[in-house]
Automatic annotation (TrEMBL):
This is Cysteine--tRNA ligase. It is an enzyme of class 6 (ligase). Its cofactor is Zn(2+). ATP binds at residue 282. It is found in: Cytoplasm. It comes from Cereibacter azotoformans. One of its GO terms (molecular function) is cysteine-tRNA ligase activity. GO terms for cellular component: cytosol. Keywords: Aminoacyl-tRNA synthetase, ATP-binding, Cytoplasm, Ligase, Metal-binding, Nucleotide-binding, Protein biosynthesis, Zinc. Zn(2+) binds at residues 30, 221, 246, 250. The gene is cysS. Belongs to the class-I aminoacyl-tRNA synthetase family. InterPro entries: Cys-tRNA-ligase (IPR015803), Cys-tRNA-synt_Ia_DALR (IPR015273), Cys-tRNA/MSH_ligase (IPR024909), Rossmann-like_a/b/a_fold (IPR014729), tRNA-synt_1_cat_dom (IPR032678), tRNAsynth_Ia_anticodon-bd (IPR009080). Its EC number is 6.1.1.16. GO terms for biological process: cysteinyl-tRNA aminoacylation.
Length: 486
């Protein structure tokens, strides 16, 4: 069996991965707060840990991996978004507005992440459906002396957990010095964080032993991972921005509530997608959404995925137009090479080895290039699928309309053969090349040049050989531009 090695943030070492139960390998990834469209940075953990999910499924069997990724659908930012809509005159109740907003955002999220080729996790729990489990965990923490109630709030007593800070390798005092900790008069210690807070009549709230209120963000992941994966599971992952305080707090809560378990054995953190050296984030306003890239800029989800996988997850990266153009050109070539091809029975050993070595996606992609250079479409297809690339579903490759059948752009879903197997492109291109040949023979070079310019302008690559003209479709091929030459 392939040995997977993963860098564990907790030990700061690359370690051989041994699941607790190979028949049920368990992975938890912190999901989004659903108040707005996902930006490109939010796509990075999704794509990175989708590759991990695919790798685990390959090694342990698709039915032996449980992947949980939550939706945080109770949050001050969500409330604020709904309140803003109400203030703008929306007649619906705040409750209806919140539900509409979170439902819509989840729909958008699925659309975008499907387009990036991410498999849906096994479970996608919504926090609001697990409030009972959160209340039970908080009660347990209070009973064990790890939490206390003050003025309708319940706070976690950080100093009651000796290992607090172990994940980030920092002492509590260092963390206080470096972090923006909310000082509240009712806290015993500035580091203590909220497990439960009161809700006024307007805001969403649930009855609890501490009055009507709502959970803090950190307790959501602790409660849902416990319910769905148990007190000990294999891998917990998310962006590096969540390491402190979110993950430290999750560990403190889970380990104190369930000292019988070890919570997560392996912690994995993806580095950030940057814009001009700064984390892409909603609060800085320096973001663009995955939806913008796909719909407004016409970049296929598969191209976005390839760019994200072009950098190792442990390194910061940025998005550039050049990277996108390069990924598009590569995928276009690979798509043509694998169209109508049955995948080989198993992936290339070197691609598998690269991924098993701490998800080395750039090395895996380099290897895919050599497989493509050998024109082994079957092996290319089987190996690329471990990275979620070149699958039958076109994943948002936007193909222009067949010549002569209308205008605009159509989204093709279905077989990849549509890209090259379109007889009508072929007929038009070959007819034009034939007309060019006739024009040349009749020494009408103005016309033959015009036809060549037209073809090249539409993204057709022409090679004149002694046996006649050969052609191929370039990555920027756009048959909408295959009009008639002047
Ligand atoms: N720039 C980024 N690069 C990589 N991952 C990111 C980036 N920004 C957020 N993430 C990750 O996206 C996931 C969803 O996070 P969350 O919903 O909390 O983001 P957010 O709060 O909407 O983002 P922001 O940080 O922009 O306010 C988390 O795993 C987080 O680590
Ligand atoms: Zn979490």
């Amino acid at each position: 069996m392939t040995t997977i090695r993963l860098t564990n943030t907790k030990t700061r070492r690359k370690e051989a991965f041994t699941p607790i139960d190979p028949a049920n390998v368990r992975l938890y990834v912190c999901g989004p707060t659903v108040y707005d469209r996902a930006h490109l940075g939010n796509g990075r953990p999704v794509v990175v840990f989708d590759v991990l999910f695919r790798l685990l499924r390959h090694v342990y069997g698709p039915d032996h991996v449980t992947y949980v990724r939550n939706f945080t659908d109770v949050d001050d930012k969500i409330n604020a978004a709904a309140q803003a809509r109400k203030a703008a005159g929306d007649p619906r109740s705040l409750e209806e507005l919140i539900r509409a907003r979170t439902d819509e955002t989840i729909r958008w999220y699925h659309e975008d992440m499907d387009a990036l080729g991410a498999l849906r996790p096994t479970h996608e729990p919504r926090a609001t459906e697990w409030i009972g489990a959160m209340i039970a965990m908080i009660e347990d923490l209070v009973a064990k002396g790890h939490a206390y109630e003050r003025e309708g709030h319940v706070l976690f007593r950080v100093r009651s957990y000796r290992d607090y800070g172990a994940l980030s390798g920092r002492s509590v005092d260092d963390m206080i010095a470096g972090a923006r900790v909310e000082v509240a008069p009712f806290k015993e210690d500035p580091m203590d964080f909220v497990l439960w807070k009161p809700s006024d009549d307007e805001l969403p709230g649930w009855e609890s032993p501490w009055g009507r209120g709502r959970p803090g963000w950190h307790i959501e992941c602790s409660a849902m991972s416990y319910e769905l994966l148990g007190a000990s599971f294999d891998i917990h992952a998310g962006g590096i921005d969540l390491q402190f305080p979110h993950h430290e707090n999750e560990i403190a809560q889970s380990c104190c509530a369930h000292p019988e378990g070890g919570f997560a054995n392996v912690w994995m953190h993806n580095e950030m997608l940057l814009v001009n050296g700064k984390k892409m984030s909603k609060s800085l306003g320096n973001f663009f959404t995955i939806h913008d890239l796909r719909k407004d800029r016409g970049i296929p989800g598969e191209v976005i995925r390839m760019v994200l996988l072009g950098t190792h997850y442990s390194k910061p990266m940025d998005w550039t137009a050049e990277k996108a153009a390069q990924a598009k050109a590569t995928l276009w070539k690979w798509r043509k090479l694998t169209a109508d091809v049955e995948p080989a029975a198993s992936p290339d050993a070197a691609v598998l080895a690269a991924l098993a070595d701490d998800l080395n996606t750039p090395a895996a992609i380099t290897r895919l290039h050599s497989i493509a250079a050998q024109e082994d479409g079957a092996l290319l297809k089987a190996s690329a699928s471990l990275l979620g690339l070149l699958e039958d579903d076109l994943r948002g490759w936007t193909l222009p309309p067949v010549t002569g059948t209308g205008s605009g752009v159509m989204e093709v879903s279905g077989s990849a053969t549509a890209i090259v197997g379109n007889v009508q492109y072929r007929e038009t291109i070959e007819r034009l090349l034939d007309e060019r040949k006739q024009a040349r023979m009749g020494k009408d070079f103005r016309r033959s040049d015009a036809i060549r310019d037209l073809l090249v302008g539409a993204g057709v690559i022409i090679k004149d050989t002694p046996a006649g003209a050969e052609w191929d479709l370039g990555a920027d091929f756009d048959p909408a531009r295959l009009g008639e030459p002047e």
